[in-house]
Amino acid sequence: MTGTYSVMNLKISTLRSMGACFGLSALLFVQAAPLAAQQIPADELPAAGTDTGLDGKYDPQNGIAQVVRGEYQGVAIIFQDDHVMVFMPPDEVVAPGHVLVVPKRLGARNLLDLKPDEMRDLLVAVQKAAIAQKNGLGAAGFRVQQNKGLSSSQTVYHAHFHVIPSFGGKAPGTPAPRRKLPEAEYNEIAAKLRAAWPK
Predict the structure, then answer these.
(1) What ranges in 78-159 are assigned the alpha helix state H?
(2) What domains sit in the chain, N to C, each tagged with a CATH number?
(3) For residues 80 and 104, what is the distance between their CA atoms, to the nearest angstrom?
(4) 132, 198 in Cβ contact below 8 A?
(5) What is the pLDDT at residue 94?
(6) According to a count of CB atoms within 10 Å of the terminal CB, is the N or C end of the chain lower?
(7) What is the pTM of this model?
């Protein structure tokens, strides 16, 4: 009996090794194939001469920097401390309750410019934003998105995380287009998120 189990174990081990080899070969083949660049419509590209997120100078007049400095009116700030600000985009959201989590330090264009302690503080705020979306809005799930560089669809070159709630019991298809919420709905959602923000 022991010999039969040894032969079976050897066959299973051989099959697993072959499967791993085929899997690695497929992975290497896929990685060797050139990646097609994501196409961004011309009207969404930044003006000529502006930073593309990974290289160049930080633009202190970008929209997020203006929000951090308090220069952008009508923005619902959900949470802020000395290092992090969480706010609802005033002009376009993917879903009601969509927030941006940003470092308050100006100069961080993307994830690569963040210091380890900033990264920690931002991710703690991302988690709290998701908890507030769940408890305050009844979100059934959420998506965390962070784009870095023009080729990854970053259009504002101040590091930021999108925390986007989802509702309902099934997976959505293509993400919904962004839209502007009516002012009353925007303010109501902001109040619910603030009230549900974890202490």
Answers:
(1) 116-137
(2) 52-196 (3.30.428.10)
(3) 9
(4) yes
(5) 85
(6) C
(7) 0.68
